[in-house]
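Researcher: We're teaching a course module on how sequence relates to structure. For the next exercise, students receive a sequence and then see the predicted structure as C-alpha cells, so they can try to spot secondary structure elements on their own. Here is the exercise chain.
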Amino acid sequence: MTKRGKFRYLGLLPFALLLIFFCATSAFGGPPFLTDDPEPVEFGHSEFYLFSTLDRAKNNTTVQSPAVEFNHGIAPDTQAHIVFPFTAFAPDGGPAAYGGGDMELGLKYRFIQEKDNFPQVGIFPMLEVSTGDADRGLGNGRTWAKFPVWAQKSWGPWTTYGGGGYAINQQPGQRDYLFAGWLLQRDFDEHLTLGGEIFAQDKTADAGQAATFANFGGFYNFTKNFSFLFTVGHSIAGESHLISYLGLYWTW
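Model: And here is the predicted structure for the students to work with:
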C-alpha cells in the first residue's frame, strides 16, 4: 500500500530507521493514517508534507524516504493532490534498490457539507502513475487507480471519518481490490491530537493475501501552520505487515 495505497516495509531495518528519523521529517485527515477524509484544502490555500513510510512485509521491506506531498485548493470544495516518493526496496535474501517511486495524482471533491446531524461526504479518485522502475521493485509497472468515498463527522474534541472504495490495477500479477477504513481521533489541546484506525483491504496481488490493520498515532502542532505527524501499526488479520509513518507538515 502507499499513503494512500500500498505500503511495503523494508528489509534493511537499520537503514530504514535511519531514513525514518533523519530524512523524514491525512483536524488532519489522511496523513499520517491509511484512512482518508472528505475535507479538502480551502480554496486558495496549500499544504505540504515531507515524510517517510516504512512497511515490513513477510518477504520484503519497503521504505519511502524522502517523500513529498503537495495539496492545493483549486476551487471551492476541490483539492488537487500530488505525491512523489524516493523508494528503497529490499527483498529478503536479495539485493536492495533505491530510486524514484511511483507518483500519485488525485482530486478531492466534497459534495456534501457537514451539518449538525449529518456528516460531510466527498470523493478522492487517485492515479498511481508508473514512474518507478518496476524491475527493481520501485514501482507497480503500470498506472493504476483508486476510487474511494469518504465521510466525516466532528463533535467537541472528537472527530471520526472513514469509508472505502475500489482499486483497479491491471498490471500482471496484481489485482483489483476493495478497501475500507474507519478512524476515531481526539484533540487533547491545541497542540496534541491522537487517534486510531482499522483499515482493511482485499489481496492486492495474485501471490498476496487480504489484510486488516490496526494503526495508532496522531500529530503535534508546534504552531497552527507547522506540525509533526506519526503513526505505527500492524496487521491484525491476513498478510503480515508492520507499518509506520513520520512526517512534517506545513500549511499556508
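Model: If you want an answer key for the exercise: The chain has a mean pLDDT of 90. The chain has one domain: 13-251.
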